[in-house]
Structure formats: structure tokens, C-alpha cells
Amino acid sequence: MKIHLHQFLPVLFLSLLINATLESQAQTVRYVAPAGTDAGNCPVGSPCATLNYAIQVASAGDVVQLAPGTYNQKATINKPITLQGAGAGTNPNVHSIITGNAPALSGRGITLAAGVANITIKDLRVQAFGGGSGIYGSGRNNNLRIQQVQVYQNLGGSSAEAGIHLNGPIADITLQNIDAQYNSTRGIVIWNGLKERITISNCTISNNNLAGLELQDGTASGITITDNIIQNNKDSGMSLVGLSAGAGANLITGNTLTNNGRFGIEVKLPAGNGQETGDGSILLMNNRVERTLPIAATELRDLAGIAVYRRNWTAANLDIPQGVVLKQNTVLGYRQASASDGFGIVVEGNNMQVLNNTVSGCDVAIQMQAGHLPYNALTTTDGDQGNLTDEYFGRGNTPGSSGVIRDNIFDGNITDTRYVGLPAPPEFDRTWIGTLSAEWGEASNWQEEAVPTATSDVIIPAGTPHDPIITDVQAVNNIKIAEGASLAVQEGALQLQGYLRNEGTLIQSNVGELTFTGVQRQTLGGTKTLEVQNLQVGAAGLELAGPINIKNKLSLNGTLYTNNFPLILLAGPAGTAQVTGLDKGNIAGLVTMQRKFAAETSPTTGYEILATPFTSASMQDFFGAELPENQALVQPFAYNEVRTADNSVNNFEQGWQPITNFNAPLQAGLAIRAKSEQGQTIMITGTLQNQAVEVSGLTRSTGRQSGWHLLGNPYAAPLDWRRIEVPAGMGHALYTLGESGNYNSYVNGFSTNAQEPLIQPMNGFFVRVQEGPVNFRFNPNQLANAVESPTPVQTENRSQLHLQIAAGAKKDVTIIYFEAGATAQPDSRYDAYKLPAVNATDPMVYSQSENEKLAINGLANLEAGQAVVIPMGVSGKEGEEITLQARLLLNFAPNLFIFLEDRETGIFQNLRENPVYNFNLSSPETTNRFFIHFTPDNISVKEAANTVAVYPNPVKGFLQVSLNGLNQEQSVAAVLYNNLGQVVFRQMLPVRNGRVAEKLNLANQLKGVHVLHLQTQQGIIQRKIVLQ
């Protein structure tokens, strides 16, 4: 093939140019190994021996990769490359170690040439350079990354050297996961000039001969120092000079500093904006500064955990420190044996914010100072650091200071807060005067003509024309209610960032609330017992400073510390005060919980079901060691389902087993029954349960009434049955004892009592095991979020009949409903059994299915044209007048007829038209008298017209006559014949709404057998009557 070279050359040159460009952009790895040879370009198969050679042949952007081993050599990086080792550590078999001994080398370990940017050093160790720093940046080494590097025992020849020493001006530096220890001067220092956007994080800096970490001389902006461990350095743990605006916020957070020399953290000549965010903000937050070792008695200098002050001024710095926020730091143990003071936190300068810190075990916890001498403006003159017998922190010399010290927590300090050289601010900046009205939100009611805000410290004094009333949400920092004064929270809430100190009276309505929202642990209480309606504990926690009674609700989002003060959950007409949020918080300390028995508690029985909300309790907690006659509770019983093992249908009551050992524990999650004295209150004290509780080994014996177990709510909050995952082998229904002595039932969203499905604190309930053994588990996430009512049944779309029986004030309810999946046979997912009333004469109603009594009966949905007949059972006091009432008929087809049939009287009553049916019970219990008909067909007019009830029979005095289905008539004649066929009584009975319901006065008639004729348009109805 013939090639025309003049045509091909342009293409060749273009190809070479493209390849050259790609080659220059590619990152080449230059390999170094202890046994390598300095020749060539250090490829992977032929590494070179020295760092400097590899750097020499490398191009910008290349990686110099060190194999594991020891490198007894120095290096200078003079181009933007990555120096990467095999790992930082002491084992040359796996780590890359650059060392300055054996033989000893003069000078520094790794030097970064001045002005060279974009250098990365990672995954190696630099150690034992006796003449200088381990890593030294000559200046302007911007975009520098040093990561996963150890710098140990670099014993530099001057105090300017360090493990890592960088020089400014410099910007965009990341030091991450550095381990800098046992260096002769500093661990890490960035010196001179402006330092911008510096990030130092997750480093360990310890045992260095001077400071641990320093940004020294000049100014710095956009500094982030987080999550470092700095300890056992002989001078300051962290020293920061000239923090200021220009490159962003300055954030010092999450660092742990322990047993460092003179200071934990020192901030010198800051120029902050006094805010927590924004360009120029300086925020020291969530740092822990601690002395665990005693300070020597020979130490005469003033030491401090955190110090902000004036020193080492240069022309680049402000003359007076400005605008630092110290928040949520913890400082401990700065106490000196000498005459000098150990300061937790000391600040001087303008607009200093010292907020929500915790300071413990110091001579002076927090000090703000001004006026220490000597001071010459805009000069390098420093304060007198001699051991002067004054209260000043000796290093600073700012002439004036201002700012806020607020909401800090103190423990075990000699002095908590001290102002030196300036007056202490007033304790309160808002004073109630109440001249105009009681309205909190009216500015004229405050001495300062301004309504308090979330940062206000408020005093409510006595003797004002009006006491303040809060009717919406108001916020304060701290508040004191003075002796003789009162504050009412009627609606909304009083939100507090700090403390509430009460020497007077706090008045709350049921909806008024105290809400603690601070970021540090807060304080509540005073010399008087404080009754709080609703109290909400914030996530930071709350500690008591006096006795507290809770009347309605205690909500936990954090820990409530009682500090051995009484904390009582009061009982009132609406029940016992409750604790919510046990899955989010807890109470550290003892709690007393009341249980009040109503003046007419269980009037027919006097029984109560009781459970403990505490982690441990014994029978003595409820009953005492003995049972005196005036004891609030007597006759205690546990329930033992094994005692019901025979096949008697009605032997449920045999499960009650008397308690005789009052030293025995009352197991959390179980309950007992006891006789109560009406109107009395019991009080039980213990540690509230907030963990999961398991009741194991629930069995079912062979008897027809076996499988019942009496469990108890183990928490001081309502237990929501809807949130409980019912274990396999257990029925889904819940059974609780009602006030009338009947048991209420709940299953599948249906309840025979308005309070279900919530189980109140200190209350118990029955469950039934279908097939054991079963383990039942309680958990705090099953608790109701607040005092709740269940969703009203009216919101259901299922067809349902609620039938109520009543005798006087005593009532009972049964429910029949229809739902897909339910069957005519008893099913634990859809049905609830009927437990016998504690008093056999109390009225009771239930439906029947396969010889089982059901309180709640779920059936399959009615098909079009289908008729269903449900046998019912009723019981009560023989001869007593009783009422059956369809309390609720819901979601049935409009053309469906619902009848109550009384086979003793022959009456069919349409419950849609006449929901109330009255009758006399002829025996204590009947199971074949009443039936409920759900039918698409109307009962025939003849049957309906001839359905009559006459009672009582035999009769003495008045005879009740009830007759239905008389829609076309105005009246019915009632004629009574004696046994001779003579008319002895006649009365016209009015027809109202197609029904007769009248009483006949037969008191003057002779005794014997009579016949009553009821004359209707359809004919005469006859009933035999016996007069007594």
C-alpha cells in the first residue's frame, strides 16, 4: 500500500498531542520501598529507595506510595503530590514509618516548601526527629490534607517546633485522625499570619511537652475543631488566638480535654459577633474539660478549664476581646491547693455569652472580670501574672466587660458565679407590677413596659393590684414566684428555658401546662409544696428543688431527678395523675402514687382490681404487715386458673385464691383483687417501671372455665390494648371490672364500656388463654400518648346492636355485630366471653353461641334475604323490674327488621320503633326466654297485634299491660272476668304510637284465678291472671 507522508503527518501530530495531554492529566503512582533503587520513574515493579528521589521524578498530581517498612530519611515536598503510606503504626511489616534516628538525622522530617499548595499526606508515621518538627509547612501551603498520620517523639530544637508545624498565611487545611504524642514542644501548631478555613477533627493530641493544639499569633477565621481528644499536655490543651470574621464561622465543639497544664481551652483576643452562627461567630459548645489529677500545692498560677481573655496583642488583633458564646460545655475539677484560684470558666471582654454549661468541683465555677492591671491600649502590655492576693484571673487585663451568664448548672464549687471589677447584673430583668389587669401579655403590667420573652428572667412579687394570669403560650427563661404571690396558668402553657422557683402559689387549670424546654438540665420547686396540673419534662432533664404534687399529667421527654424530694401523683375524681412518655424518659428517684376509692366504689361489691406500677412491690405496700379493721384494703385475692379445672359451667369464681403471705412480692404485670373502704385513698411509693415486663407461663387447664389470668398494668400511664400484640394461644379480648360489679369487655374495636381499650394505672384486667403456655409481654411503647378516649363506635361502618340491661342504677351491655370473617361459632379474634358479675343479683345480659356466653358476639355479614336468630341470656334479681334497651342500632339496611322476642309473654317487639322493653324476671337467670331476630320480613300483623305482656303474674295490686302492633286503633278495652264468668273490672286503655303500656289497679279485686280480655280490632286476646 502506498502511503502519502505529507497527508499522514498532520494526523500523527494531532494523535501525539492528544496522548501527551491525556498523559499529563493522568495520576501516576511512584513506588518507594526500603529495598528499592533510586533509578528510573519508580514503577510498581521497580520501586525507588528514597522519598526525595520519588518526589523528584514525580509530576504534579502524582502519588508517592510507600511500601511497609522503616525509612530513615528526610524529605522535602516541593510540588502538589500525595504522599501515601501503607498505614500509620509501629510495625514496619505493615506500616510505613519515617524516622529520624538510627542513625540520627538533623533537621525536620517532612518539609513542605513555601508556597506549594494541594499537598496530601496520609497513612504513615513520622517519628524521632531530634532537630525539628515531624511535619513542617514553610508557609502558604494551601489546600493541605494530612490524614491518618502519627507524629511521635519529634524533639525539635526550639519551642517553635512541633509534631506538625504549619506557618501562615494559610488556607483550606484539613487535619484529620492525627495522632500527635510525646513531641518535645507542641502536638499541632499553626503559627503566624492569617489562617482561614482550618478543620481539625478526630485527632488524639497528648503528652506533648508544651501545648497540645495551637493556632498561635495573628488571626484565624472559619476554624472548625471538633471531636478531638487532648490530654496530659504540659501547657494548655488548646490555645486559639485571634478568632475573627472573614472566612466563616468558628466552631469548637465535641472535644475532650483532660489533665492538661495551665488551661484546658484558652481563647485570646477573639473578635466574634456574639452569635452562635454566621461569619465571625465563635462558638465553644459541648466540650468536656476536666482535671482528674490533683493540682500540685506548688502551683501558684491561676488555672482555668476555659479562659477567654486579652493577651499577646498585635496590630492584627482587636484590643478588647469580643463576642464569644460558651454553651453546654462541661468543666470539672479545677481546684487548687495553693492560695490561687482554679477557674472553671473565666471570661473578659464585650458581649460574652456563658450559657447552659455544667461546672463542678472548681474554686470558682464561672467568673466575668474587668480592670485587671496593667493595661495600655493597643500595646503588647499583658496583665500581671504574679501570684497576687486578689480575685482576678491573672492572665487577662481587659478594662471593661459585658455579657450574659445564664442557666448554668453548678455542683460542688466554692463559688458558683463571680463578677470581679464590674457589678453583678440584676437577677431578674422582668418584674410584674399588675397595675392595669391580670393579663400576662399586656406590656403595661410589667415594670419594664415589655412582655417577657424566652430569654427573660421574671419575678412575680407579692402585693400587686392583680396577680398574673396566662391564657395562651408564654415563654420565659427563669421565673420566681415570691412568697405571697400567685401565678395562674389557665390555658396554653408557660414554657421555661431555665428554672421555676416557687415560694408562693401556682394555679393551673386542667388544660394549663408547665413545659420545660431548655437545652440543659432545669430546676423546679422551692420551699413550699408545688401542685402542678400538667408538667412536661424536656429532653435535657429536670431536677426538683422541692416537693411536687402532680394532679393530672406528667409528660417525660427526658429524665426527672427527684433529688429525694417527694413526688406524688395525686388521685382525684377523674382518676390518678398519669405519667406519659415512659418510652422516652424516666424518673430518677422514688415516686408516690395514689389510688382513690370513690364514695360509692363498686356499690354492690366494694371490690377493686389492683396492680403495681413499680419495679418491685410487696403485698405489704398495699395492706401493711397486718390487716387492722381500719385498713383501706382487706380480703386480698389472687386469681389461679388451675382452681377452675373441673367441668362446671359456672365455676369462674373458684379461681379466686386468698392471699395469706403479705411479705410475698406482687409481681409486675399481675394483679390482685381486694375489698376497699369507700372514699379512702391508698399511697404506694417506689421506682416507676419503664422497661419491658414479661409474664410467662400462662396456662389453660382442662375445665370449661379455665384459662383466665388476672394481669395488671405495670406502668404509671394508661395501657392501650390496641397497641398490644396479642401472643399466639391467647384470646384477643380484654376484660376489666366495672364500677357496678360487672366485667366490661373489649375486642376488635368494640367495647361494652366507654373507657376501654385503655387500662388505667394501678388497674388490672383479665385475659383468657386458649392454648398454653403463653408468654405475655408489656412494653412502654404500648402506652397511650396521653389521656385518651377510644374512637367512638359511631364511626364504625359495621352493622351492630348494643343492648343494655338495667335495674335501677345498675347496668350491663352486650354487643352483636356483623363483619366479614366472623362466624356463628365462638372465635377469640371477634368475640368476648361473658364473665359473671361479682354479685349474682346484678343485672347481666349476653348472647349465646354453642353453650358459651358472649359479651361481644361477632357474626358473618348478613346476606340479602337472610334471617338470623340470636338466643340471649339475662340474669338478675328475681321479681325485679328490669329494662332492656337497644342503646345503639347502627349501619343496618333500612328494610331489615330487628325484633326482641319474649317467649314467656309471646311478645315480638320491633326495636327500631320501640327500643325499650320492660319486664319482670321470673327466675335469677334465663337462657331460653329472649331472642333477637334480624329478618327481612315483618312479623305478621296478627302475631304483632296479639303480642301482649301482663306482669307480674301472680299479681298483688297493679298489673302492667303491654300490647304492640295497634297502629289503626285509638283504644283497647281491658275486661276482667272471675272464675264464674262475671265481669269484675273494665278499663279503656289508650293506644299511643301503636302501643299500649298501662297499669291496671286490681288491689280491690278478690283473690283467685281470673281471665283478662283485651278487645282489639283484630279480636280478643285472653290471658289467665292469678290475683293474690
From TrEMBL:
SMART domains: PbH1. Residues 112-267 form the Right handed beta helix domain. Pfam families: Beta_helix, Por_Secre_tail. Keywords: Signal. Residues 1-26 form the signal peptide. Residues 950-1026 form the Secretion system C-terminal sorting domain. Transmembrane segments: none annotated. InterPro entries: Beta_helix, PbH1, Pectin_lyas_fold, Pectin_lyase_fold/virulence, Secre_tail. This is T9SS type A sorting domain-containing protein. It comes from Adhaeribacter rhizoryzae.
